[in-house]
Amino acid sequence: MGRPKKENSLTRQDVIETAIACLDREGESALGVNRVARELGIKPPAIYKHLDGNAALRQAVVLAIWQRFFAYYKQQTVGLSDPRALLVAGGHATRNFARSHPALYKVMMQVQLQPTDSEAFPIIQEALSFFRTGLEAYNFTENQLIDVMRMVNAAVSGFIAVEQAGLLTLNRSTDESFEVMLDALFAAIEHIRAS
User: Fold this and answer.
1) Judgement on whether residues 21 and 72 belong to the same structural domain of the protein
2) Which residue range forms the structural domain that includes residue 24?
3) To 10 degrees, the CA torsion angle through 157, 158, 161, 164?
4) What is the domain-level CATH number for residue 72?
5) Which of 32, 92, 97, 165 has the fewest other C-beta atoms within 10 Å?
6) 133 lies in the same domain as 176
7) Burial of 138 from C-beta contacts in 10 A (0-12 / 13-18 / 19+)
C-alpha cells in the first residue's frame, strides 16, 4: 500500500483502503486505528481527522467491503435473468467472495446495518434491489421479498460461517451440500410464491 508523502495529503479513502488491505492480509485483529496508522507511517491522531476512532473505522470499512462485494456479485451474475440461475450464481458469488477474502467477509457479516443510518441505507437498498430484480416476475409483496431475502441470506451466510469454522466434517462434499441447499432454497422461494 502506498503511503502519502505528507499527513495533510491523507484522505478518508486512504485510511479505509489501508484498513481493508491490513484486514485482508492479517485478519480481524489488524482492523484498528493504531495498526492502520502504523501501516501508513503516521501517528494515530492523524486518522482521527477522517474517522472518529475504531468504531467509525470499522463501520466505514464494512460499508466499503459491501461495495466491493456488490461489484463482484454483479460481475458474477451479469446477463442472468432466470431466477434460479441468479440464485445459484449469487450463492456461488457469495461463497467465493468469502473464500477469497475470509476476514473481509467475516467483518462484513458482523456489523449490523440499520436502515435509519444514511450511510448504510444505500447498501441495504442495493441488496434488496438484487432480490427485487431477480424475482421481478414473481410479483412478491414487499414483505414476501424481505422474507425471501432473509431466508436466502441466513442459509448462505450460515453455511459459509459453519464451513469457515471447519465444522462440516462428515464424509460428504461441501460443494454438493451447498448445491442441495441452493435447490432447497429455490423450492422454498416457490413455496412463498404460492402462499
Assistant:
1) no
2) 1-51
3) -100
4) 1.10.357.10
5) 165
6) yes
7) middle
